[in-house]
């Protein structure tokens, strides 16, 4: 599935502030499509690469729907501007099932499965295929940036760009600095994040970075409280929404992000820190084993109508 005709890229010869104009996102899932959308909205040419054609088709439909929604909000009084916004952003996005079609760009953001060996394999391949100036970045939510990039040569042009779901809505971007990233690459990442409308914060390569390191104990304790029967799931969530002004309760949020993702993040944090707050939670393990992963499967802590 190769639809790469339609635009001409202008490649930069070196990375400097505001130099990132062409982007490839590897992974056509919810996170990958969201990253592609915000980059295209910002005027950048984007290629989404995924091995599954059906996932690319789903990503394109999702992006189109989201762009229409944004256009109606931003240009609600000017239908012509809204139509042009959607058309121009859509035309900046191309898709392919071949990784080679996405290597000649300024930045590649990986948004694939959270498995260290799979990510390492991908980056080792990209390191060989990409031009020297290309920056490589992982959207990992918990795996060490240093470990992911251990086998690549361009360690100075590699870091983390951790987005939050849903990407077009969430304003935060964590820019993760590995041990070998150059100042030039770091500044280019920060500048790019701002160019796509994100507020960027910086963290070194520490387990869970900023948000998940702090969110992990909160989510885990909420899950244990429900598991013990201390309070109903509804009351736990209402308590944190009305008592702490959180937009979502911890159990609602766990379902939204995916219980499998929650389990994996807690597992990594426990392995890396030894903090007992991150120990495995029997209820979470049970739900994941049963395939009850949250909204994406129709049931998790709560049950959902898939339609």
Gyration radius, rounded = 20 Å
Structural class: alpha/beta
Largest sheet: 8 strands, mixed
Task: Give the overall form.
Answer: globular
**What percent of residues adopt helix (DSSP H or I)?**
40-55%
Helix and strand element order? EHEHHEEHEHEEHEHHHHH
Low-confidence stretches: 1-17
The termini sit apart by: 28 Å
- Spatial arrangement of strands, main beta sheet: 3-2-1-4-5-6-7-8
Number of strands: 8
Question: What does the model show?
Answer:
With 307 residues, this protein is of the alpha/beta class. Helices cover 45% and strands 13% of the residues. It has eleven helices and eight strands. The chain has helices at 30-41, 53-74, 79-91, 116-129, 145-148, 183-195, 211-228, 233-244, 250-257, 259-273, 282-289, and strands at 22-26, 45-49, 93-96, 107-110, 135-138, 158-163, 172-177, 199-204. The chain has an eight-stranded mixed sheet with strand order 3-2-1-4-5-6-7-8, sandwiched between helices. Helix 1 (30-41) links the parallel strand 1 (22-26) and strand 2 (45-49). Helix 2 packs antiparallel against helix 3.
Condensed summary:
With 307 residues, the chain is of the alpha/beta class. It is built from 11 helices and 8 strands.
Salient structural properties:
307 residues; alpha/beta; 8-stranded mixed sheet; 11 helices; 8 strands; 13% strand; disordered N terminus
Compile the SSE list and pairings.
Elements: E1 22-26, H1 30-41, E2 45-49, H2 53-74, H3 79-91, E3 93-96, E4 107-110, H4 116-129, E5 135-138, H5 145-148, E6 158-163, E7 172-177, H6 183-195, E8 199-204, H7 211-228, H8 233-244, H9 250-257, H10 259-273, H11 282-289
Parallel strand pairs: 1-2, 1-4, 2-3, 4-5, 5-6, 7-8
Antiparallel strand pairs: 6-7
Helix pairs in contact: 1-2, 2-3, 7-9, 7-10, 10-11
């Amino acid at each position: 599935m190769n639809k790469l005709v339609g635009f001409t890229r202008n490649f930069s010869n070196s990375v400097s502030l505001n130099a990132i104009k062409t982007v490839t996102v590897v992974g056509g899932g919810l996170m990958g499509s969201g990253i592609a959308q915000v980059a295209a909205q910002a005027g950048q040419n984007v290629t989404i690469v995924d091995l599954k054609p059906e996932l690319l088709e789903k990503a394109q439909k999702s992006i189109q729907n989201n762009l229409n929604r944004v256009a109606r909000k931003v240009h609600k009084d000017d239908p012509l501007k809204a139509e042009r916004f959607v058309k121009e952003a859509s035309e900046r996005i191309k898709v392919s099932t071949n990784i080679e079609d996405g290597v000649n760009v300024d930045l590649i953001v990986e948004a694939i499965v959270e498995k260290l060996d799979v990510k390492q394999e991908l980056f080792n391949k990209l390191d060989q295929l990409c031009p020297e100036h290309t920056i490589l970045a992982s959207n990992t939510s918990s795996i060490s940036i240093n470990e992911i990039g251990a086998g690549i040569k361009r360690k100075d042009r590699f870091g983390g760009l951790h987005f939050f779901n849903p990407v077009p809505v969430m304003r935060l971007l964590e820019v993760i600095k590995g041990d070998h990233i150059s100042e030039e690459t770091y500044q280019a990442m920060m500048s790019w994040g701002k160019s796509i409308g994100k507020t960027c914060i910086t963290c070194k390569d520490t387990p869970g970075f900023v948000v998940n390191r702090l969110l992990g104990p909160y989510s885990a304790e909420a899950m244990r409280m429900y598991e013990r029967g201390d309070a109903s799931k509804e009351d736990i969530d209402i308590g944190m929404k009305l008592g702490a002004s959180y937009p979502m309760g911890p159990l609602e949020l766990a379902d939204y992000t995916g219980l499998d993702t929650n389990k994996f993040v807690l597992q990594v944090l426990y392995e890396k820190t030894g903090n007992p707050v991150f120990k495995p939670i029997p209820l979470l393990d049970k739900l994941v084993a049963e395939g009850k992963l949250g909204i994406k499967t129709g049931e998790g802590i709560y049950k959902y109508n898939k339609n």
